[in-house]
Amino acid sequence: MLEVTSSIAEVRRKVAMARIKGLTIGLVPTMGALHQGHAALIDAARARCGYVVVSIFVNPLQFGPQEDLKRYPRRPAEDEALCREHGVDLIFAPSDEEMYPDRQLTIVEVLELTRGLCGASRPGHFRGVTTVVSKLFNIVQPDVAFFGQKDAQQAAVIRRMVADLNFPLEIAVVPTVREADGLALSSRNVYLSPEERKAAVVLYRALTKAKEMVEKGERSAAAVRRRLLETIAAEPLAELDYAEVVDYDTLEPVDFIDGKILLALAVKIGRTRLIDNFVVEVRDELRK
Ligand code: AMP
């Protein structure tokens, strides 16, 4: 049965009770306005864990001063219905005061991995993410925490944080859920006008073309990146933030495509910044 709380003490009590019953604890951190992408994370958690906690918190610390903190969609009743439908045990939806009763003087920051991609255009964003996710890990103390591949850099940064700081939990990454035309589901898609919504499929189109090139044997990252840039440039409503071909773990740009890499895009469609990525794995015979 679904329970909802805004209290850290209450979360600790409920999780302790689940532990006594011998249940594995799963955590799905979200900012709410839940959609089928979040549902896939919840389903993955439900499949692996006996007790599933979904946190819903629009974290002010990870928004820049010019970003959409104020207008970010908030839909508590719909979120609760989706969680109930997907068998969540506990929603933790704290207030800003519950999470940050005082100025937060302690910050968790992952170096290097946060410099490029979204880190370059959103200074301070990942510090906000890693700080709040650390707090959530300490509050819920899950065995497994679930994140979406849609936010590839976030997943890589959190994997690294967990390894570097010895958090006693496992990170599970869930594949990106898409609309029928390929657009990655995002709470921010509601900002798009009908015309922008049509244009937004350009991210998926560009990634698909680039991936096809790799599948046909192209190994030059510069050539693949050029295809991404050309495809985005051909869409009048799209304004490029970045298009990169990077290593899956280090997020460093690669020259030659080999092993596990990410094709990563951030594009503004009107005022809305969208991100998407494909994971591509190439296992060429050992080069002579
Ligand atoms: P958010 O509420 O946008 O902060 O996202 C919460 C979690 O859901 C993050 O781990 C995201 O990567 C994940 N997520 C968001 N959209 C999708 C999607 N379309 N497919 C899979 N996971 C997603």
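^ adenosine monophosphate complex. The pocket of adenosine monophosphate is lined by residues 30-31, 37-38, 40-41, 147-148, 150-151, 174, 176-177, 184-187 (CB under 6 Å). The chain has ten helices and nine strands.
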